[in-house]
Protein backbone atom coordinates (compact mmCIF):
# COMPACT_ATOMS: atom_id res chain seq x y z
CA UNK A 1 0.00 0.00 0.00
CA UNK A 2 2.86 2.34 0.86
CA UNK A 3 4.51 1.53 -2.45
CA UNK A 4 1.31 2.45 -4.27
CA UNK A 5 0.97 5.72 -2.33
CA UNK A 6 4.54 6.67 -3.15
CA UNK A 7 3.89 5.96 -6.86
CA UNK A 8 0.81 8.18 -6.81
CA UNK A 9 2.75 11.02 -5.18
CA UNK A 10 5.65 10.55 -7.56
CA UNK A 11 3.49 10.69 -10.69
CA UNK A 12 0.86 13.05 -9.27
CA UNK A 13 1.19 15.62 -12.05
CA UNK A 14 0.89 13.03 -14.79
CA UNK A 15 -2.16 11.52 -13.07
CA UNK A 16 -3.73 14.96 -12.61
CA UNK A 17 -3.23 15.80 -16.29
CA UNK A 18 -4.74 12.47 -17.37
CA UNK A 19 -7.79 13.03 -15.12
CA UNK A 20 -8.29 16.56 -16.52
CA UNK A 21 -7.99 15.31 -20.12
CA UNK A 22 -10.46 12.48 -19.48
CA UNK A 23 -12.89 14.91 -17.81
CA UNK A 24 -12.72 17.26 -20.79
CA UNK A 25 -13.16 14.37 -23.24
CA UNK A 26 -16.20 12.84 -21.53
CA UNK A 27 -17.67 16.26 -20.84
CA UNK A 28 -17.47 17.04 -24.55
CA UNK A 29 -19.24 13.79 -25.38
CA UNK A 30 -22.27 14.88 -23.31
CA UNK A 31 -23.55 16.96 -26.23
CA UNK A 32 -24.03 13.71 -28.17
CA UNK A 33 -25.93 12.11 -25.32
CA UNK A 34 -29.59 11.33 -26.08
CA UNK A 35 -32.21 10.19 -23.60
CA UNK A 36 -34.81 7.69 -24.77
CA UNK A 37 -37.85 8.12 -22.53
CA UNK A 38 -39.54 5.01 -23.94
CA UNK A 39 -38.73 2.17 -21.57
CA UNK A 40 -39.97 -0.37 -24.10
CA UNK A 41 -36.94 0.34 -26.31
CA UNK A 42 -34.67 -0.95 -23.54
CA UNK A 43 -36.46 -4.31 -23.38
CA UNK A 44 -35.38 -7.40 -25.39
CA UNK A 45 -36.75 -7.11 -28.93
CA UNK A 46 -37.20 -10.88 -29.23
CA UNK A 47 -39.45 -11.04 -26.16
CA UNK A 48 -42.97 -12.11 -27.23
CA UNK A 49 -44.69 -9.76 -24.76
CA UNK A 50 -42.64 -6.78 -25.96
CA UNK A 51 -43.39 -7.66 -29.59
CA UNK A 52 -47.13 -7.85 -28.85
CA UNK A 53 -47.02 -4.55 -26.96
CA UNK A 54 -45.30 -2.80 -29.88
CA UNK A 55 -47.73 -4.35 -32.34
CA UNK A 56 -50.74 -3.11 -30.36
CA UNK A 57 -49.15 0.33 -30.05
CA UNK A 58 -48.56 0.46 -33.79
CA UNK A 59 -52.16 -0.43 -34.59
CA UNK A 60 -53.73 1.96 -32.11
CA UNK A 61 -51.51 5.01 -32.58
CA UNK A 62 -48.75 4.58 -30.02
CA UNK A 63 -48.17 3.57 -26.42
CA UNK A 64 -47.24 6.98 -25.07
CA UNK A 65 -49.88 9.57 -24.41
CA UNK A 66 -50.15 13.19 -23.41
CA UNK A 67 -52.83 15.55 -22.25
CA UNK A 68 -53.54 19.26 -22.32
CA UNK A 69 -55.44 20.40 -19.26
CA UNK A 70 -57.74 23.42 -19.35
CA UNK A 71 -59.41 24.97 -16.34
CA UNK A 72 -62.23 27.51 -16.24
CA UNK A 73 -65.30 28.16 -14.10
CA UNK A 74 -67.22 26.29 -16.83
CA UNK A 75 -65.25 24.57 -19.59
CA UNK A 76 -68.44 24.38 -21.66
CA UNK A 77 -68.42 28.15 -22.05
CA UNK A 78 -68.68 28.90 -25.82
CA UNK A 79 -65.34 30.72 -25.83
CA UNK A 80 -63.56 27.88 -24.01
CA UNK A 81 -65.09 25.30 -26.35
CA UNK A 82 -63.75 27.32 -29.27
CA UNK A 83 -60.26 27.15 -27.73
CA UNK A 84 -60.61 23.40 -27.17
CA UNK A 85 -61.56 23.02 -30.83
CA UNK A 86 -58.52 25.07 -31.89
CA UNK A 87 -56.21 22.93 -29.76
CA UNK A 88 -57.82 19.72 -31.04
CA UNK A 89 -57.43 20.78 -34.68
CA UNK A 90 -53.82 21.87 -34.07
CA UNK A 91 -52.88 18.52 -32.52
CA UNK A 92 -54.67 16.56 -35.25
CA UNK A 93 -52.50 18.25 -37.90
CA UNK A 94 -49.23 17.87 -35.98
CA UNK A 95 -46.70 15.30 -37.24
CA UNK A 96 -45.94 12.69 -34.60
CA UNK A 97 -49.43 12.72 -33.07
CA UNK A 98 -51.50 9.57 -33.60
CA UNK A 99 -54.95 10.35 -32.24
CA UNK A 100 -56.70 13.19 -30.39
CA UNK A 101 -59.76 13.06 -28.12
CA UNK A 102 -61.49 16.07 -26.61
CA UNK A 103 -64.92 17.43 -25.73
CA UNK A 104 -65.30 18.77 -29.26
CA UNK A 105 -64.69 15.50 -31.15
CA UNK A 106 -65.61 12.79 -28.63
CA UNK A 107 -68.37 10.36 -29.55
CA UNK A 108 -71.25 9.64 -27.17
CA UNK A 109 -73.76 6.80 -26.79
CA UNK A 110 -77.26 7.94 -25.90
CA UNK A 111 -79.44 5.08 -24.65
CA UNK A 112 -83.23 5.41 -24.93
CA UNK A 113 -85.01 2.31 -23.70
CA UNK A 114 -83.96 -0.59 -25.91
CA UNK A 115 -82.50 1.73 -28.51
CA UNK A 116 -79.24 3.64 -28.52
CA UNK A 117 -77.93 6.48 -30.60
CA UNK A 118 -74.28 7.17 -31.38
CA UNK A 119 -73.19 10.71 -32.18
CA UNK A 120 -70.81 13.48 -31.23
CA UNK A 121 -70.86 14.44 -27.57
CA UNK A 122 -71.16 18.13 -28.50
CA UNK A 123 -72.94 18.73 -31.78
CA UNK A 124 -74.88 21.39 -33.64
CA UNK A 125 -77.99 20.64 -31.58
CA UNK A 126 -76.52 21.06 -28.11
CA UNK A 127 -73.50 23.33 -28.67
CA UNK A 128 -74.00 26.31 -26.32
CA UNK A 129 -74.14 29.84 -27.70
CA UNK A 130 -74.37 31.66 -24.39
CA UNK A 131 -73.69 31.22 -20.68
CA UNK A 132 -77.18 29.93 -19.91
CA UNK A 133 -76.89 27.16 -22.51
CA UNK A 134 -73.36 26.37 -21.29
CA UNK A 135 -74.60 25.93 -17.72
CA UNK A 136 -77.43 23.73 -18.96
CA UNK A 137 -75.04 21.48 -20.94
CA UNK A 138 -72.72 21.35 -17.96
CA UNK A 139 -75.51 19.93 -15.79
CA UNK A 140 -76.12 17.23 -18.39
CA UNK A 141 -72.50 16.21 -18.96
CA UNK A 142 -71.46 16.03 -15.31
CA UNK A 143 -74.15 13.33 -14.96
CA UNK A 144 -72.87 11.44 -17.98
CA UNK A 145 -70.88 8.50 -16.56
CA UNK A 146 -69.02 8.07 -19.84
CA UNK A 147 -67.38 11.49 -19.70
CA UNK A 148 -67.66 12.81 -16.11
CA UNK A 149 -64.41 12.10 -14.29
CA UNK A 150 -62.73 11.13 -17.57
CA UNK A 151 -62.73 13.86 -20.22
CA UNK A 152 -64.34 16.46 -17.94
CA UNK A 153 -64.23 16.89 -14.17
CA UNK A 154 -67.36 16.20 -12.16
CA UNK A 155 -67.71 19.89 -11.33
CA UNK A 156 -67.29 20.99 -14.95
CA UNK A 157 -64.30 23.23 -14.23
CA UNK A 158 -61.55 21.11 -15.82
CA UNK A 159 -61.26 19.24 -19.09
CA UNK A 160 -58.48 17.47 -20.98
CA UNK A 161 -57.46 17.08 -24.59
CA UNK A 162 -55.99 13.59 -24.72
CA UNK A 163 -53.58 12.54 -27.46
CA UNK A 164 -51.22 9.71 -28.38
CA UNK A 165 -47.71 9.95 -29.82
CA UNK A 166 -46.89 7.79 -32.82
CA UNK A 167 -44.43 4.99 -32.08
CA UNK A 168 -41.79 6.46 -34.41
CA UNK A 169 -42.15 10.00 -33.02
CA UNK A 170 -39.37 11.90 -31.25
CA UNK A 171 -41.46 12.68 -28.18
CA UNK A 172 -39.34 15.56 -26.90
CA UNK A 173 -39.24 17.20 -30.34
CA UNK A 174 -42.99 16.73 -30.84
CA UNK A 175 -43.67 18.10 -27.35
CA UNK A 176 -41.62 21.24 -28.08
CA UNK A 177 -43.41 21.74 -31.38
CA UNK A 178 -46.73 21.15 -29.62
CA UNK A 179 -46.02 23.87 -27.05
CA UNK A 180 -44.92 26.23 -29.84
CA UNK A 181 -48.16 25.62 -31.75
CA UNK A 182 -50.29 26.10 -28.62
CA UNK A 183 -48.47 29.35 -27.77
CA UNK A 184 -48.95 30.59 -31.33
CA UNK A 185 -52.71 30.29 -30.89
CA UNK A 186 -52.42 33.25 -28.48
CA UNK A 187 -55.23 31.91 -26.33
CA UNK A 188 -56.20 33.96 -23.27
CA UNK A 189 -55.02 32.43 -20.02
CA UNK A 190 -57.34 29.54 -19.22
CA UNK A 191 -54.83 27.82 -16.95
CA UNK A 192 -53.55 25.60 -19.75
CA UNK A 193 -50.91 23.01 -18.88
CA UNK A 194 -49.45 20.01 -20.66
CA UNK A 195 -48.56 16.65 -19.20
CA UNK A 196 -47.12 13.51 -20.68
CA UNK A 197 -48.27 10.06 -19.65
CA UNK A 198 -45.93 7.14 -20.26
CA UNK A 199 -48.16 4.10 -20.51
CA UNK A 200 -46.19 0.86 -20.34
CA UNK A 201 -47.81 -2.43 -19.39
CA UNK A 202 -50.72 -0.71 -17.60
CA UNK A 203 -48.33 1.41 -15.51
CA UNK A 204 -48.98 5.15 -15.55
CA UNK A 205 -46.18 7.59 -14.77
CA UNK A 206 -46.96 11.31 -14.73
CA UNK A 207 -44.34 13.93 -15.61
CA UNK A 208 -44.34 17.43 -17.06
CA UNK A 209 -43.14 17.62 -20.65
CA UNK A 210 -43.50 21.33 -21.21
Describe the structure.
By secondary structure, the protein is α+β, with helices and mostly antiparallel strands. The chain has two domains: 1-33; 53-208. Helices cover 38% and strands 22% of the residues. The chain has helices spanning 2-10, 12-29, 48-59, 78-92, 131-141, 171-184, and strands spanning 64-71, 97-101, 107-112, 115-120, 158-165, 193-200, 203-208. The chain has a five-stranded antiparallel sheet. Strand 6 (193-200) and strand 7 form a beta hairpin. It is elongated, with a radius of gyration of 25 Å. 21% of the residues are buried. Residues 198-210 have low confidence and may be disordered.
Overall radius of gyration: 25 Å
N/C terminus separation: 53 Å
The fraction of residues in strands falls at 15-25%
Uncertain ranges: 198-210
Query: What would the principal axes of the Cα set say about the shape?
Result: elongated
Mean pLDDT: 76
Main sheet: which strands, in order across?
A: 2-5-1-6-7
Helix amount: 25-40%
Order of helices and strands: HHHEHEEEHEHEE
The number of helical runs is 6
Amino acid sequence: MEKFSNSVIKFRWAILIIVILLTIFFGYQFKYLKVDSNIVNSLPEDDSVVQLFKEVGGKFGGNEMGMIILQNHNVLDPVVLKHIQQITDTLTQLDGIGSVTSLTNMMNINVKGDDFEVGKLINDKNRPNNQKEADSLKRVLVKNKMVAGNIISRDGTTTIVLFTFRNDADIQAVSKELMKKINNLHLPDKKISVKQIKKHFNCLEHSFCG
